[in-house]
Every structure is written in structure tokens, then in C-alpha cells.
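Bug report (template v2)

What were you trying to do?
Predict the complex of my protein with 3-methyl-2-oxobutanoic acid.

What happened?
Run completed; filing so the output is reviewed.

Input:
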Amino acid sequence: MTQLPAAQSASQQSSDGSRALYGGKSTRRITVRDIGLAKDRGEKWPMLTAYDAMTASVFDEAGIPVILVGDSAGNCHLGYETTVPVTLDEMTMLSAAVVRGTRRSLIVGDLPFGSYQEGPVQALRSATRLVKEAGVGAVKLEGGERSHEQIRLLVESGIPVMAHIGLTPQSVHAMGYRVQGRGEEAAQQLLRDAKAVQDAGAFAVVLELVPAELAAEVTRVLHIPTVGIGAGPETDAQVLVWTDMLGLTPGRVPKFVKQYADLREVMTGAVRAFADDVVGGTFPQDEHSVH
Ligand SMILES: Nc1nc(=O)c2c([nH]1)NC[C@@H]1CN(c3ccc(C(=O)N[C@@H](CCC(=O)O)C(=O)O)cc3)CN21
Ligand SMILES: CC(C)C(=O)C(=O)O
Ligand SMILES: [Mg+2]
């Protein structure tokens, strides 16, 4: 039996930030339990999507505690128009790559459209693939009251579930990409959805494109963490699609995106410099050659 050094066990009981999800000392893989404890401490945390091992390794090394292998891979990685065509085979392959590229981040795999809507048994079969074949620590699925039986069976089976309510993009053909929870009736429905996923055992819930005041109320009422995207500043966590926040997504991005870099411009400049060098005969030079 290895004994914990005294200094380490003392620091784990302190409130000096050493246990923080972001900026903390621990190098082991983060668990859903750690996520729950962060809410009790009032600690906010960041989440980003990733769809490949290399990008995920950057976020892991930067200390991002939770990485979502989102089905936004459909439009951000695989070239589809929406998330609707994404298959469970595709999500399994991308999730496995993200797990392989990371050491500390909790990896959440998105269940794609059609892989859980038939019912709890189908949901369990699909989630089991992401856990066994890809190695994710949790799965995410869309829907509040309508998905509570799926959430309950997964959680009873030992698979942690992140729920996702408000705008649920897999339902784009039914609801469009519109703000959810506006008006008294829609706000009551969102609150019922939030309580339903918490009661079913979800460890966290994404609130997408809901009014900031309503997201704040849901965050106060729930004991599980809320993860906002277009849901104002009061949620326990914030998530963005990585290609949006780093300026790689072509064309228009949603209004809730803050762009922290312009990777499309950086990459275009570098690629043109390479092409100019090749055409002009200035690459390769002697240092890039073998003799
Ligand atoms: N690149 C990307 N970023 C995302 O955030 C994202 C995806 N893809 N794909 C999956 C879902 C779909 N999401 C979306 C898609 C469109 C809007 C959108 O058009 N929103 C309008 C506001 C609409 C309204 O006010 O009712 C906007 O201008 O922000 C929002 C979220 C979020 N997710
Ligand atoms: C936008 C987030 C929450 C998502 O579900 C995705 O990236 O697929
Ligand atoms: Mg998704």
C-alpha cells in the first residue's frame, strides 16, 4: 500500500484552490464526483468541445477540466450541415481519439440523433459503446422530461449522464435554432425539464440558448451544475464549440460566441507562405535537406 504524503492529504482538505477543477494540483482524471463538489464550493468551470486527439491534448494541457465530444462534430468536423446525420459509429471513433489524446480532462461523449430516442434500452446499448469502445467517463443526451427514462436507466447502469435542455439542435427540424424558455409557459416547461433530469440522476445539465434570468433561476434551484451556452453569466459552467471560440468556423457563428483567436487567418497566412515558398523555390533550403 502506498501512503499519501502528509502534505498532499492536508492540501486536499484545504480551501486554497488546490482542489480546483481549473488550476488545481491534481493530475488524475477528473470524475463526475469532482464536478458535483465544484458546485458545492461555488466554483465556475470551463468546458470545450473537441473532435480529435491533437486538439483535445491542447485543451487537456491547458487545464480544461471537461471536454465534450459534441455531435457538433457533424458541422464542425465532418462537413455535414447539421448534427442530425452524425452516427454512433462516428461518435465512437471521435470519442476514442479524444480519450487517447487526454490524461486529466473528463471526456463526455454526445449521443447522436437516433441512438437513444427509441427508448431506455436503445440508449443503454448506445451509451455502453461509448463507454466500452471509446472510454468516455460520461455521456450526454438531449431532452428534459422526454428523456428522463433514458437518463434513469443509464445512471442506474453506472453511466454518468449530462443532460441538455433548452435549444436541442437534434430537433432542428421541429424547433429551428430559436431561443427557448421565453414567456411564462416556456419558462415553466424549462424548469420542469431541469428538475426532471436532476431527479432522473443526471450529474449536470447543459442549458442552451435560454434567457439569462431563467438560466440563473435554474442554476439556483438545482443542486447539480448547469453548463450554459448562450445562457448568460450565472450558470455554474460555460461551454463553447472549439472551432467557434478559436475562429476556425467558416461564416456566421451564433451570437453567444466570444472569439478568442482567429485561427482561420493564422492558418491561411501560414499555408499561403508555404505555397509561395514552394512556387518561388525558397523551400526547402539546405537546413531542411539531407545529404
Ligand atoms: N459551430 C457550431 N456552434 C454551435 O454552438 C453549435 C453547432 N455548431 N452545432 C450544434 C449546435 C447548434 N447550435 C446553434 C445553432 C444556431 C444558433 C443560432 O442561429 N442562433 C441565433 C439566435 C437565434 C434566436 O435569437 O432565436 C444567433 O444568432 O445566435 C444557435 C445555436 C449550437 N451548437
Ligand atoms: C453545443 C454543445 C453543448 C453540444 O451539444 C455539441 O457541441 O454538440
Ligand atoms: Mg450536441
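What did the reviewer find?
Strands lie at 45-49, 66-69, 106-110, 138-142, 161-166, 204-208, 226-229, 237-240. The first helix runs from residue 6 to 13.
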